[in-house]
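Title: [Solved] CoA-binding protein 3D structure

Original question kept below for reference.
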Amino acid sequence: MYLQGIADFPYYLGIRSLADVARREDRVCVLNIMGGESRTVTPVSHAYSGGNVVFGTSPGRAGQTLKTPVGDIPVFNNVREGLDAGHTFNVGVIYLPPPSVRDGVAELIRVNDALEKIVIITEKIAVHDAREIRAMGQANGVDIIGGNCLGVADSWNHVRIGGALGGDSPEESLRKGSVAIFSNSGGFTTTIAQYLATEGWGTTTLVSSGKDVYIHYNARDFSHALVNDDRSKAAVLYVEPGGYHEHGVDFGKPTVACVVGRWKSKLTRAVGHAGAMAGSGDRAEDKEGWLMEAFGVDGLYTPDNPVVSAKGAVVTNIADIPMALTAVMKLNGVSPDFASTGSLALKPWIANDQGLALPPELAMPPVTPREPYATQLAVLKRQVGAVIARQTMKDKSGASVMDPTTQVTSVHGFSVLDLALDPLEANFALPLVHEIAGENDRAMLDVAVAAEVNLVGDPILVAADAARDAGNAPNAIMAAAAAIVGPKRVERALACTSALIDLFAHSDLRDGRSEEFDTSAITMDAATRALFLASEAEADDPRPEAMLAAVKARGGKSVFLEYLTTLNGRLSRDAILAAISLTIAWGPLMRKRISRLTAETLPWYLRLYGVMVGATIPGSHHQPGSLCGIPRDERFGQWTMTDLCFLAMTGKKPTRDEALPLQILVGLLISNGPGSISAQGAKGAVAADGPQTPERVQINKAMVGFLTHTGYSHGGNGFEGMAFLLDQFKDKGLSDPTDPSHGIDLKAMATDFARAYKREKAEAKEIGTEVRALPGVHHPIFKGKPVNYDPRERFIAEFMAKRGDYNIFHAFYRELVQALYDVGASRYVFCVNVDAVIAALLLALLWKDYKSGELTERDLETAAFSVFLYGRMIGSAAEIDDHLNRGRNMDTRTPASACFHVV
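Solution (posted by the thread starter after getting help):
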């Protein structure tokens, strides 16, 4: 069979002019028309083209139709059925999966003698299939375009065949003009057309060639059709690495080529459009050279270096294409097709400088977008807080992440090492505002929590004491207390917070501390006002006045408290808690750092913080107006979270020197990432309640989940390091662990222990028993070097050293790891891990009370457990809030296929 193709071509080519690529009279059959991509794209193409799709195929769906704006398209099981039904076509479009494309091409060619063109949308077609497809097309006189393309379109003919060139509104992007586009990228084909319009250039024919390994309709074919198309005065090429399609091609008309992908020459495997990955001599840099030689230019075009010739220019940024084309066409005496439609200058629709003084080139004022985007943006601007997409959160977290190299966890982007150096109340706020609270907000938090710690007369204290008397560990005592702080306990506080958000959301208030803000326009009805005022049953509660006085004494500022004081009535404790919470949350809420849900639930967390700390103090110390003998006004007006936590552990207020180690301890313990047992307990409780209906999630129950997932191994094991140190120093006469002039030979102590430990290891090996692990020594991650370090331990040690602080227990640990190596008990110098630092800091903090008999070893163990719980209380709050905002119902379940029965 003789095929009448283009003369002088070494292979068959039927498309003589670009005007023939996508014609108005073309009739189309779509294979896999009911597939996911085709169902969306084909109706748009069909309508834009005036109804050019005659039928489609989808095995097993014969008799169905694909609805479009200009009529339904019938569906058949195969091509033969469609032809037998009287439909005729000359173009096939293929949306089939890669393994089926070859058979689809064969079917089209075998049953339809009138077939002229096939457009293959499918990507990643096997090379051997592509070769057979090429052979079939050549043998039967069929032009094939693709694969991995977005089809073809013609702005003059108002036709689109296969793919989504021009997007959902092709009439907006495909403006009639004089420039043809040939692009390896389907998406950028449309983008280039849109960019050209900003310089007044419209388009003729657009060909998305695709960029599978085998490109069937390539640059040489395009150049021939370009020369024969009287409509096209110029061309734009978008070129990627791989293949020699553009080498030695004379495009015959002015052309701007955009060559991208220099980075792909550094790859060792195919990625994305680098399916035909650059090999020897066909890198992006090589193609730039070919095209510069073809156009007679000696450099790349940029706005600052506009290198062009009458033949063309080479750019590396698609944004430079329009200006380059205008410059080239000016040399040819050709003007743009129409007036400019705009510019490619940045035109932000949204601007938020976060209060920073930006230089003029960055401080760009926002512009009003065109419709429908202007209306949509207006709706978004009225949205309060962040909106977070839900997803399955099993073993995931949007709050915390652990660096696998350093083993250091970060919470909302803040390393726990840095958090260890921040005030404790700043850390308690972080999980819920995603920022480090400033001085004003820390003071407000101190007041809010202090108002919740004294539990005198509350059933919570009865429950906590009963759990304590039953011999429970600190976590179970806290859990008994937290279980009672259920939804009804915080219902009004949350309602007050929600009401305040509604009142101020669109008032242009940006800072909750702005007491000068004019609230005269904020009005509330009688029912809302009643929500904030104390009831008769609360008449004997002295805390509202004490809280307001404490805020004033601390110099706290809150526009919400200022506003509530204008209501001419006695405020309830819930109303004040809500106002304090919203003061802390308002800035992050307005900056969309947190969601409205997070801001509304903040009072629940603050109340839980106070109750859980208060529950660790035995009931006998809770008295009307005082806690452990500390008057209410002093605690409310002066005490910090650090003071309260230290009080709960020791029964007294810490000195300045005692407060810092406690702050560091809690900071270090905040989180160990979402995989820790404690975090899993918290997240599982949220998942069980159903975060997709967040109003039903019980935050107190999630805190109980964290508490029940701690224990003597995870939480209480902090005492093991202290017990080890107590054993080493029991007969040493140590009076002050922080005095470097202690007179104890630590090296000798360490050496004696190391020798004994070496003998112990030998004996254990001889009789086949396990050797006891040394708490605080070694870490599976930080090993293998002659001398090993835990970066967390080094960080804290260096900080303490800069302050001139000394800790004998930490110093002993350092001597110990060296001695173990020196006597041959270890193969290398073990690291002193962060657990050792925690044990050393805590024991030094409590040493004097222990030696005086005020604290027993049992008390030390309780203190070690409690410090862990205080830290993880913060980390768990972060996980609870994150899962509440981001998670799906029951998403922490393990699939049955991953579960096993053990006999």
